[in-house]
Amino acid sequence: MNTTRRTFLISSGLLTTALVSGIELPAFAAGDATTLRIALNRQTGNLDPTVYKAIWAVQSMIFEPLVRYGQGGKLEPALATSWSVSEDGKALAFKLREGVTFSDGTPWNAEALKWNLDRWIGKEDHSWLLVSAAYDRLQIVGPYEVVLHLKNPVPSALAELTTVRPVRFLSPKAVAADGTFKEAVGTGPWKVVRNDAERTELVRNDGYWGEKPAFEAVSLVVIPNARSRVDALRAGQIDITGGVFVAALSPQDARTLEASGLAVETATGTDTLVLGFNPERPILQDPRVREAVSLCLDRAAICEKLLKGFATPTMNLFPSVIPDSGRRLPVPKRDVARAKALLEEAGWKGAGVRSKDGTPLKLELVISEDAVAGSRALGEVIQNFVREAGIDVDLRLVDHVSRHDDIPQLKYDLALFITAGAPYDPHSSLTTYFLSTYRTGTDGKMFMDAAKLDPLVNAALTATEGTRAAAYQAFYDWLEQNHAIAPIYHATRLWAHGKRVSNFSIPATEYEMPHEGIKLVAG
What we know:
This protein is of the alpha+beta class. 26% of the residues lie in helices and 21% in strands. It folds into three domains: 5-47 and 188-268 and 493-520, D-Maltodextrin-Binding Protein, domain 2; 67-174, D-Maltodextrin-Binding Protein, domain 2 (3-Layer(aba) Sandwich), CATH 3.40.190; 273-491, Dipeptide-binding Protein, domain 3, CATH 3.10.105.10.
């Protein structure tokens, strides 16, 4: 969901430049309390739920899932009121919500569900979802009762069915006879009346089955430049900005807004920034070298200085808000002396840059600002930290495309990764970043060991409810004991809003827009 380098260059001007180029912010009369104005970092794009192009959070306002992902991973009813899983884990039965219609009047029922599933489930393009890869058939028991049959158990199936795409539901009338997507029509609280390069306009769906919004419309305004978004919020031209995939708010900008008297809302992040090691590099095959690199990092200083306190230092792969995230590990203080001792023990000796058998202890860290915002500054900090122990690290800056070419091909020594976050974890990151038999083509691996780690990953992914926590813990224990990765921090989730907004709350995932329960204050 990153904007391209070309988009960044074109849109790097200030707000006045955006206005001159035709991107006008909506004008509202004083006292208006009918329209909520939210900033987007780019245009929403194609809203078809089966196409991976639009901003997730905008789609979440229009389309609904069977099951909703609540805070801390609690599964809550949505278009399904109840569900059950068979003892063998291969059949998921759903009771559908009755009396629901899409915003064009089309009934929501088992046939509408089947029509939607037929568009994506079991198809190769969507096999990254384990529930899709394992799909066998759909059984319609009645107008509001279905059973989803799988070829093999998928313990993460219900969590996967909470995701925004491709699983959320579109009106069957919103697609042409030839299968071409025509318009975004869902069962959610908002209807689309405009969607172009400048903004996406939504109006309240007064036929919505759930709690209806307190205001009439949402104007999602494209402001590509981060500084321009901050200025627009301070000027009262927008009401909300933030969210990693909506309009990311940097820690520096968050502190600026706080100093201006505006509200900055925070929540524990659901993802983790991890320093990963290429296990095919001979230097890094020794766990003592990996441990030494990790011990050189001052995680607390990184969080406080680089991230202005908007992060939590960690040694865990996942934050505690992720289900089955394991016991909390103590975060060690930076210990260069211990790092040096480990390197000496491993045979890396000498003053300055250490060496072994004539080979210098030199590593390359691949970083991409497009993929991980702020990674250049973090890379420089890591470079300086490890140098004190005699490890030389070169930084190789690449763009988003080059990173996605290099990392899967293991063309790196060290690389920065971000876990998938809610609702995809823990299962998604285990599959994507550690399972050697699964190749995504873009994400690459934090660490691989086919003989020792793969069995632990597979055991965790297939564990039943009663054994799942222990199976995941066994995987985490192996990572810790082998110093396979170096988790650094859980970034704090950041949103900011103006004084017109009250009752603001951050949703459970970064893939949803904060709009539920909000009230607008006139004035």
